[in-house]
Amino acid sequence: PESFPPLRNEAAVHVLRGRMKGIQGHCNSCYMDAALFSLFSCTSVLDSMLFMPFPRCDRNVQGILRDEIVNPLRRTGFVRASSVMHLREQLTDKGQCSSFTNAEKDPEEFLNLIMQQILGIEPLLKLQSGGQKEQECYCYQIFMDKQEDLVVPDVQQLVERSFLSSDLKLVEIPSCFIIQMPRFGKEYKMFSKIIPSLELDITDLLLDSPRECCLCGDVATLEC
């Protein structure tokens, strides 16, 4: 199948900036539009979703995702709402949920449906909480209480504090780390802005990872 590489640097700015760019919204599609744009516009980490013949893969849905959404986005910087609706109609048929075409969903619900049930991809993350049995998932949603010292946080701060408050560790380095920011509603926003961290240091988030002492710099033997 025809394919286009993800947009990078000056090409990304040239193709994606301006009016009538991005994924056109329609009928509460914002959660899916934002997720698809984040996953495919400027990175190839999940391009296996577009091409790999996974054991339980629905090739029709895979073709719609590749040919009607990702390729147009990378080629012209614009995806019509009708293309996303075509995908939503297929998800409605496959997911035993009649509201994918008209209701707003949680992005995690969308990712779990398309990655697990429709494409049959293995979970991307392995997490462990407080020494309990490890859990597998496709993305991590940041949960945390309001903290007064965080006015305009970056993603690094949010991930570290969320892991700390939930006593979570990554069992292994993930091939892809999809992070969902704290939920924003119409009435309440925990943060007015979040600064993207262009790199993410997961050293302190890894289970049994050697780390340096914050005082002397040698390998640490205790964790506060």
From TrEMBL:
Gene3D superfamilies, alphabetized: Cysteine proteinases
PROSITE patterns: USP_1
Ranges where the Peptidase C19 ubiquitin carboxyl-terminal hydrolase domain occurs: 22-202
GO MF term set: cysteine-type deubiquitinase activity
Location of this chain's protein in the cell: Cytoplasm, Cytoskeleton, Spindle
GO aspect biological process, one term: protein deubiquitination
UniProt keyword list: Cytoplasm, Hydrolase, Microtubule
GO cellular component: microtubule; spindle
Domain of life of the source: Eukaryota
Main location: cytoplasm
InterPro entries linked to this entry: Papain-like_cys_pep_sf, Peptidase_C19_UCH, USP_CS
PANTHER family: 40S RIBOSOMAL PROTEIN S3A
Name of the protein: CYLD hydrolase
Protein source organism: Oriolus oriolus
Gene: Cyld
